[in-house]
Write a structure and sequence with these properties.
about 475 residues; mainly beta; 5 domains; six-stranded mixed beta sheet; rod-shaped; binds calcium ion
């Protein structure tokens, strides 16, 4: 886990500034160099000169009373120093630092303990000295010294709470030394750190652990050189109106209205905090059944000409989808043609009446309830008896056997012609307008018309030949 994280070229995390305690700042952290004392060190490796006294894992010794020491949790090993009265200095190579960092840090984990038994530990003559050089080794500043206990056998806060952290200046030693002693009751390590300004161009580190006896052990591990870029988070606000569900820039999903902060990395890798005023409206569903003729226009404007079940989508009052499931039946209109002959008045299927020949369209409902359009080719015949406008002409006798007399010929203006016609409108003979008596004895029995054409129009008078 640790190695995986450190292999990342750049980490973005919330980091507690150790020097100021309560101040939180967002950092982009680059791992510039790293030494974990494993058989295959994690990259980027911080190489060193000097010879390690030995390496130990927390469980390496069968008589270890401190199982699972964090420095050596199975398969992880640390630099171990015990009974090296002159100290075991190791110098970590001069490392060039690219410009652009706000700060540089060197830190490592340190445990003080007795790998040989449940008692014992570093005393005040035992120490770990940390020196640095920022001039490629020309001069070293002795800056940080962690000692064992002044009252012997310290287990100074090697329980992950002990922190020995200093700035690189002043160029003099700061010593951390516990004033109490006692058995180590909790496993753990302390944390040693020197902070530099971001503008140093190189750094070397020399660490010298010193131990007087085999029961006074130091374990050093996870030395890391990091470059940090302080970030100022950016903030902005947006208003979002959506339907049903909203996925925020960070990927969070909201299904109800809310005002919330969403955080994503900005272009510089720092937090971009977006305050989102979110309104989530709801889509809606409904079903209707429609029966129509020939063509159906759905609420959305789509046109259907055959029966189907389909979803039509329009906007509801919230501006979200209103999905209407429509069970549509489309029936068909029909058309037909008929030829009709009628006398005086024709009543169409719809009830409309016609009195003159022509081609008419009549509309009734078919069995499906749709229009049945009937084209009527209508031929009209007439009896000649206009009951509403009684003729000024008359004939008698009627019925007639031999001679028929036309009355009124001399009293109504000029007579242009008189025709004897049959029921089909065919002329049988033309009558001399000067004669008002016509011999019809030769006609077959039946209905006939006397058609009188005068200067005001045409009159037809029906008579029956016996
Ligand atoms: Ca290690
Ligand atoms: Ca001791």
């Amino acid at each position: 886990m640790t190695n995986t994280l450190l292999k990342n070229a750049k980490l973005v995390l919330i980091f507690t500034l150790l020097s100021s305690g309560s101040l939180f700042a967002q950092l982009a952290v680059d791992t510039i160099a790293y030494q974990d004392f494993e058989v295959t060190p994690a990259a980027p490796v911080w190489s060193y000169t000097g010879v390690l006294a030995d390496v130990q894992s927390g469980n390496a010794s069968p008589i270890s009373c401190i199982p699972n020491t964090p420095l050596g949790i199975n398969s992880s090993q640390a630099w171990h120093v015990a009974q090296v009265s002159g100290g075991n200095p190791i110098t970590f190579d001069n490392t060039l630092i690219n410009p652009g960092y706000d700060s540089i840090r060197v830190n490592f984990k340190l445990a003080g303990l007795n790998l040989n038994g449940p008692t014992g530990g570093p005393d005040n003559l035992d120490y770990v000295l940390v020196e640095y050089s920022i001039d490629n080794g020309a001069t070293f500043v002795s800056r940080l010294r962690v000692r064992g206990s002044v009252v012997s056998n310290s287990f100074w806060a090697y329980d992950a709470t002990g922190v020995a952290a200093v700035q690189y200046l002043p160029a003099s030693e700061t010593t951390f030394e516990p004033t109490t002693s006692g058995l180590q009751v909790a496993e753990g390590y302390s944390f040693c750190e020197i902070s530099f300004p971001g503008n140093i161009s190189q750094v070397m580190i020399r660490i010298t652990p010193r131990s007087s006896t085999s029961t006074d052990s130091w374990l050093v591990d996870n030395l890391v050189l990091t470059g940090e870029i302080f970030c100022a988070p950016s903030t902005n606000s947006i208003t979002e109106i959506t339907c049903d569900s909203y996925t925020s820039p960070s990927g969070a999903i909201y299904t109800s209205s809310a005002i919330f902060d969403d955080t994503i990395p900005n272009a510089s890798g720092c937090d971009s905090i977006i305050t989102i005023d979110l309104t989530v409206s709801s889509s809606s569903l409904s079903s209707i059944t429609e029966i129509t003729c020939d063509s159906y226009t759905a609420p959305s404007g789509a046109i259907y000409t055959s029966s189907a079940i389909f979803d039509d989508i329009i906007s509801n009052s919230s501006g979200c989808d209103s999905t209407i499931t429509i069970d549509l039946t489309v029936n068909s209109s029909s058309s037909s043609s008929i030829t009709e002959t009628s006398l005086d008045v024709y009543t169409a299927p719809s009830g409309a009446t016609y009195t003159t020949s022509g081609i008419y369209e009549d509309t009734i409902l078919n069995a499906a309830g749709c229009d049945s359009i009937i084209t009527i080719d209508l031929t009209m015949n007439y009896t000649g008896i206009d009951e509403l406008n009684e003729s000024i002409y008359s004939i008698f006798p009627n019925p007639v056997k031999d001679n028929i007399t036309i009355k009124g010929l001399s009293e109504n203006g000029e007579i242009q012609s008189i025709h004897l016609i049959d029921l089909n409108g065919l002329e049988i003979k033309e009558i001399n307008p000067d004669e008002n008596t016509v011999d019809v004895s030769s006609l077959s029995t039946g209905l006939y018309f006397m058609k009188i054409v005068h200067e005001h129009g045409v009159e037809k008078i029906k008579f029956l030949k016996e």
